[in-house]
Write a structure and sequence with these properties.
By secondary structure, the chain is α+β, with helices and mostly antiparallel strands. Helices cover 47% and strands 8% of the residues. The strands form four sheets. It has a four-stranded mixed β-sheet. A three-stranded antiparallel β-sheet has the order 5-11-10. The protein is globular, with a radius of gyration of 21 Å. Belongs to the cytochrome P450 family.
């Protein structure tokens, strides 16, 4: 593939359907490229595994939006005030020591031992959802399962009361997608943003009144103790509700699409359930739902893998491109359930490694096992080429997955 003049555009239906040929061409040329997004934002994209691993651990780089230069802030920091200041100071946008303090507040809730203790409850949730599947006719696995299961699991894990969980609307997650001030969708974007803020206020009020030993109650207690500001409290709840479940929804869809495209692998997984944990790791590597990381910045202009990057320019790592690097993974475009070792970067690396990785792995294992058990034979109800890939800047997944059972 011949690369266009810089910046390389990272958007459009063909790119979202299959970004891997472009990533291969970029990675083969050099590890860092100037890229452009639909909002007009340019960034430096890191593609190779070694370069990605080093960048994710690079102490010269910061995540705080205050490090972005004027050009970046004009196009990327487009959430209006006061919401930007109130909802954008969560873990993904913090550096030590604040990041260290905030991260400690959530680690216990997502610790492997606690996730393991809740596994039975998660299975009950999955069983309840598949019991609602229609007996025949095409149905959408996103609408009936993938969009519901991760949120219900998250609500159970963080202590979101059932009554409030029922009121949460998935469309509020759209507030993380770039919608500029002049975009005709801006009024709808701001409406969703205000509704989500109102919902977060209701969650904090409920936890302040009822208390408890769950994560949400602990965050409210941390605010009362002066550990978190009001803006940090709201931002962390915002991050949990939005970033805590949508990537798992998308990952379920990328895994199912990969299995439907590889029927021999699907048959093998049905025949050997013990293969499931290894299969999940390979499916995470093969097509990660968290395609690109969020922004990083140099405090001062510096060199990054051979490229001079000005201070305040945004730097993004392509986890998908890193996970298909042949220097790290032999035959990287092959789906291989026997791949070992499999040190993929689907959950990132370093101090910003996803704190919910153990929960996500458990959800994905339960989701696949339950769906394969409930659907002993299923296929796409539409041609593969008609699948609609979500146009999200950072993530991969399909917006619907209509299937037919045989």
């Amino acid at each position: 593939m011949k690369l266009p003049e810089e910046p390389v555009p990272l958007h459009g239906p063909e790119y979202k359907r299959d970004p891997y040929p472009l990533y291969t061409a970029m990675r083969d040329k050099c590890p860092v490229h100037r890229v452009g997004f639909p909002s007009g934002v340019d960034a430096w994209l890191v593609t190779g595994y070694d370069a990605a691993h080093a960048t994710l651990n690079d102490r010269r780089l910061g995540k705080n939006h205050a490090l972005g230069n004027d050009g970046w802030r004009a196009l990327a920091s487009i959430m209006p005030e006061p919401q930007h200041s109130q909802l954008q100071v969560h873990l993904l946008h913090q550096d030590p020591p604040k990041h260290t303090t905030m991260r400690k507040l959530v680690l216990d809730a997502f610790a492997p031992r606690r996730v393991g203790a809740l596994r039975g409850r998660f299975q009950e949730i999955a069983d309840g959802l598949v019991a609602e599947f229609p007996a025949d006719g095409p149905f959408d696995l996103v609408a009936l399962f993938a969009a519901k299961f991760p949120f219900l699991v998250l609500a159970e894990t963080i202590g979101l009361p059932p009554a409030l969980a029922k009121e949460f609307r998935r469309e509020w997650g759209k507030v993380v997608a770039p919608v500029g001030p002049k975009d005709p969708r801006r009024p709808e974007y701001e409406r969703l943003l205000h509704e989500l803020q109102t919902y977060i206020a209701a969650v904090t009020a409920d936890k302040r009144a009822s208390g408890g030993d769950d994560l949400l109650a602990g965050l409210v207690d941390a605010h009362e103790a002066g550990i978190l500001s009001k803006e940090e409290l709201d931002s962390m709840i915002f991050q949990l509700l939005v970033a805590g479940q949508e990537p798992v929804t998308n990952q379920i869809t990328t895994m199912l699409v990969a299995l439907l495209r590889h029927p021999a692998h699907l048959a093998r997984l049905r025949a050997d359930p013990e293969l499931l944990p290894r299969a999940v790791e390979e499916l995470l590597r093969y097509d990660s739902a968290f395609e690109l990381t969020t922004w990083r910045f140099f405090r001062e202009g510096d060199e990054l893998h051979g490229r001079a990057v000005p201070a305040g320019d945004s730097i993004i790592v392509s986890l998908c491109a890193a996970n298909r690097d042949p220097e790290r993974f032999p035959n990287p475009d092959d789906l291989d359930f026997d791949r070992s070792p499999n040190s993929h970067l689907a959950f990132g690396h370093g101090i910003h490694f996803c704190p919910g990785a153990a929960l996500a792995r458990t959800e994905l294992q339960i989701a696949l096992a339950t769906l394969l058990d409930r659907l002993p034979a299923f296929r796409l109800a539409i041609p593969d080429a008609e699948l609609q890939w979500v146009p999200a800047v950072l993530g991969r997944g399909v917006s619907s997955l209509p299937v037919i059972t045989d």
